[in-house]
Amino acid sequence: MFKKVQKWFDERIELTETINEFNGERIPRSGGWAYTFGSLLAFLFTVQVATGIFLLFYYVPYFPVARDATYFIKHNVLFGSLLLGIHLWGAFTMVFILVVHMARVYFSGAYKKPRELQWVIGMALFSFVIVLGLTGYMLIGNENSWWTINVLSNVAAHTPFLGGFIRILARGGTETSTLAMQHIFAVHVWLLPIAVILLIPTHLFLIRKTGHQGMAMEYNKSKLPDDNIDKWKHPDATVPFFPDQFYKDMIVAIVVFVVVYLLAIFFVPEVGPVYNPLALHFAPEADWYFLANEELLKFFPGHGLIIFATFLVPIIGFVILFALPFIDRGHERSPFKRPAATILGIFFLLLIVYLTLMGGEPKAPATI
Amino acid sequence: MAKSSEESPSRRTFMMVVIGLLTAIVGVGLAIPIVGEILTPLFKKRDIVWAKLGKVSDLENMQPLTPTFIPVYFKVKQGWSVNTLPRQVIVVKDVAGKLYFFSNQCTHLGCPLHWIAERQKFMCPCHGGMFNAMGKVVGGPPPRPLFVWVHKVENGTVFIQNKFLDNPKERGI
Asked: Is the pLDDT of residue A366 over 50?
């Protein structure tokens, strides 16, 4: 029976051959577990899309109804807390794994020629996911959401020349209002997910085009010098993507899924009270992945220097990251053979961790 | 019958130019309404209204240099809806008896200020900005003193407008 169905499809669209070609890609053999982060991210994104779509069955993007709708999902919808929790922890996990994935690619020099485009697309995906996280935070509709929209649009207002306009466009007017929520909703639910859905296949297509290029340890047997680009085309040993690599991808995905699921069952934060501009003792807090920038904002006082924390440092940081493969053009892959890049990378990660921890410190007035 | 692109290189060029032009027409045609839609907020005039704060005689009974938070409610047209925006007005009387009407939003990035009576300071819970009772910056990153509401006194009643004095970049209220 199955053979007959298979034959029916093969006669028309050569299905078996297509699947075999797709699955049979050769993957360098020894680094298997280190190569699972990318597919883990694709998995997490799928989970986000699935949970996100069904959250829309009850969600309303309108202050102050949004908060009540979120509250309703958490407390009155059957398994709503779980659905909301998976969407929340899935998002947090995705941001974290993104950084891990980027760090892995950075330290193993996998962004180098011929894979520059892949890094650039990956950075675009990274930017979109961060904005997805921030807009998601704003859509909850509680006090923190409202202040996040206010504070972040004020941050955006420090962009040279265009700042004032950007703030008005982001808020849909001078004040954070109904239109602000509607715009954020459209960006979070349609614009950015579609951009990500288009870019993920591009990212994968580029891997297939440039060929899989693993970490330096995959090429120990090669006699070619490191600056010969051909060296990185022939790893010592390879395995097919399916099932060898896919098996590892699945195991990592299920472990992360169980962690996200347990967190969603046991640790879903309260939705919090509805926005009240008259509150006298409210201390807004940013999401954890924004705390580093939050901390940076405290360091640059006065008229002229605010722009360092709101615009220059983040923009320069992003431009350097985007342009990384065009700045670092050496052919060395091993982290031990390019100590400057490795030390800078470790320093940068430590700086981010430090700023995040500092930014998470309780705020002075709230603790008095 | 027209020649195919393989038979005539010039016809191939012609076809490619036409394809490019048609794509451009569709692109521009779609971009006009989309860009217009996105830029709409820039062309909308802000709805400016007055809201009642309270009697001058009551306000003048306050202790000098002791800020009082008094809520005002602006009924403002925003987009397709009319919303009530509740906002805090910080009323301060200086030693000479003059009244000041400050906004409670930090001039750094707009977080809500807390009045810490023990320290006689406004403190910002976000990035540690500090202001004294007269709205001057005494610490932290804020670039300027507190915003002052546009206000007027009519028949002994103070009215507040949903607008700040001296606000060149049009920071929202």
From this structure: no
Taking a C-beta distance cutoff of 8 angstroms, is the pair B46, A173 a contact? Answer: yes
| Cα A47-A149-B84 angle, rounded to 5 deg | 120
Angle at A285 between CA A306 and CA A260, to 5 degrees: 125
Residue A156 has pLDDT above 50, yes or no: yes
The CA-based angle A50-A130-A70, given to 5 degrees, is 50
Note whether B79 contacts A174, CB cutoff 8 Å: no
Contact check, Cβ <8 Å, A151/B144: no
Sign of the C-alpha dihedral, residues A261, A265, A271, A272?
Answer: negative
**CB nearest A179 (choices: B79, B143, B144):** B79
- Residues A261-292 have pLDDT tens digits of 999 999 988 898 888 888 888 888 888 888 88
Residue A364, chain B, CB below 8 Å: the answer is yes
Euclidean distance between CA atoms A130 and A132, whole angstroms: 5
Q: How far apart are the first and last CA of chain B?
A: 69
Q: What is the CATH number assigned to the segment(s) A38-361?
A: 1.20.810.10
pLDDT digits over A101-119, tens only? 999 999 998 898 889 999 9
pLDDT at A94: 96
Q: Is A165 on the interface with B (CB under 8 A)?
A: yes
Across the interface, whether the CB atoms of A277 and B114 are under 8 A apart is answered: no
pLDDT in tens, B122-140: 998 888 889 999 999 998 8
How far apart CA A323 and CA A226 sit, in angstroms, is: 22
Tens digits of residue pLDDT in A9-57: 999 999 999 999 888 888 888 878 999 999 999 999 999 999 999 999 9
User: Which residue is associated with the tokens 């394809």?
Assistant: B19
Q: How far apart are CA A213 and CA A99, in angstroms?
A: 20
Encode burial over A144-156: b for 16+ CB neighbours within 10 A, e otherwise.
bbbbbbbbbbbbb
Which residues does chain B have within 8 Å of residue A172's beta carbon, measured at their own beta carbons?
A: 41, 78-79
d(CA A365, CA A360): 14
Tokens of A37: 């982060």
CB contact under 8 A, B78 and A297: no
| DSSP H stretches of helix in chain B | 9-43, 56-59
Report yes or no: B138 at the A interface, CB cutoff 8 Å.
Answer: no
One-letter amino acid for residue A1 of the chain: M
In this structure, the number of other CB atoms found within 10 A of the CB of residue B120 comes to 13
**What DSSP string runs through A330-355?**
----STTT-HHHHHHHHHHHHHHHHH
